[in-house]
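Operator note (shift B, R.M.): manual run for Molybdopterin molybdenumtransferase requested after the automated queue skipped it. Running by hand, logging everything below so the morning shift can see what happened. Input copied straight from the record, untouched. If output looks odd, do not overwrite the archive copy; leave it for review.
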Amino acid sequence: MRTVEEHQSVVAGLFKTRAPQQLPLVRTLGLALAADVVAPLSLPGFDNSAMDGYAVVASDLTDATDRHPVRLPVDEDIPAGRTDPLTLKPGTAHRIMTGAPLPTGATAVVPVESTDGATDTVTIRASVRPGQHIRTAGEDVTAGSTVLQAGQLVTPAALGLAAALGLPDLLVVPPQRVLVMSTGTELVAPGIPLLPGQIYESNAVMLAAAVRDAGAEVTVAPMSADDVDTFRATLAGHAADVDLIITTGGVSAGAYEVVKDALAGQVEFVKVAMQPGMPQGSGLVDGTPIVTLPGNPVSALVSFEVFIRGPLRAAMGHPQPDRPRRAAFLTEDLTSPRGKRQFRRGVLTGDSVSSYGPPASHHLRWLASANCLLEIDEDVTELAAGAPVPVWDLR
Ligand code: AMP
Ligand code: MG
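Run finished. Output pasted below as returned.
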């Protein structure tokens, strides 16, 4: 039997980072930048008003107070978006709106609140310092400076910055493209009435969501019956242009193990000393990495967490590919089988953790409301309430 770490390193070795791509901004959220972003222009691009008010020469208002207001003729009205060049004559004012270009010669903006708001001759009741309420060209970003670093993940704010700089796209590490395919003759799509012995297929939607949640792109293949020809045909029909194939089911020790039967020779089928998730497989199909997970839903999702999620995110350049791990204190006694790494579902509250539901691998209900995995070592068979146990934080 392989250890968890041995299989982790075999699976991690399959992943390849895709060549950087220039993608439109809307497709880059959450992806890693493949190069520094250098500002092609300054921000602000021109001196402009930080307030709705009046552009003035500050020295015209030195003595302006509530009791001795200063009156200035209003020569121009400058809304945001006005593009013709303007010059302010000393002894006059231009009405100006937030974001509008400051006229040449103006040295400050008086907020409308300190005036009567007039459009012909304005009465101003306060003085202003030179430079006040002006946003100076380049005070945020200087053209030519590095504003985002290679390796940084694209956030909504980074997208705002890129757009403000007039960049239509960004050079990023493209997302991994993952094909998810489930197998089992007993499986039926939700919505179709079940015959006795049939169950609803649940792994595909669950793993597709887990793949997407990890930041990758996913395609779901039609599920395959436990028939080698059907399986091969379905796989061949959907495996083009993907970076990873994930199958579920058909890899354990019974008969009708369709994945094993179809991929013997290309995929190495192994047992990993863990619970759940002992039967595993990995390899290359026509050069495309494939990881074959067991079919029990809990095994499938726990296996995805343990073997796939981290390297998948690492292949996309994610700086923290792994789930946060730490120790939490058990609220109850627990037992665990000797010789297997046990991943139990748990609920983490502060520093305490309670195991949640039985260890068996078909109990989806508990998994659905768990927020962590407890990782119990191979040589640990009993843990007492209060003992520290490593947890993977799934939140
Ligand atoms: P297998 O790994 O194919 O032997 O399947 C193990 C168990 O998981 C069996 O009870 C299957 O019916 C169940 N199972 C396998 N695939 C799925 C699936 N996609 N959705 C729900 N249950 C499944
Ligand atoms: Mg099966």
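Quick read of the result: Residues 36 and 149 are 4 Å apart (CA to CA). The two ends are 31 Å apart (CA to CA).
Leaving this for review. - R.M.
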